[in-house]
């Protein structure tokens, strides 16, 4: 048996053409009938949404807003990639290298007190804070109680204008 009963019934329901035309392969959900990874991705998301019985979570929508805002900023691509990598916590920080078992020690080499995470290196470290304090820019890195750079960036998105947000990433 090539097909199970369910598939066989579905196949038998397909109406045959009365015209004598050559069959051809056509991908559903593609405008031109040709498969593209992008359309496959959208179909996979649609199927996942259907099987879960719900839409994206508010957290996924918030992340989507972050990525849209980040990629639309008029800054050099390397700044966007830096922000993206910081938000995803994928820099080779000491904390991440210890997690991957590349290093054994995660302490910051500058302050020698805290684990050196992305958020620590960019603003929590007392040495980094001294550097930012010497900046004449209106916007200074303020980490405060944010657990990671994604939370900090979301907070900054809600408080800063487009120009200020660009300055925040570039500084």
UniProtKB/TrEMBL annotation:
<protein>
    <recommendedName>
        <fullName>Reverse transcriptase zinc-binding domain-containing protein</fullName>
    </recommendedName>
</protein>
<feature type="domain" description="Reverse transcriptase zinc-binding">
    <location>
        <begin position="59"/>
        <end position="132"/>
    </location>
</feature>
<dbReference type="InterPro" id="IPR026960">
    <property type="entry name" value="RVT-Znf"/>
</dbReference>
<dbReference type="Pfam" id="PF13966">
    <property type="entry name" value="zf-RVT"/>
</dbReference>
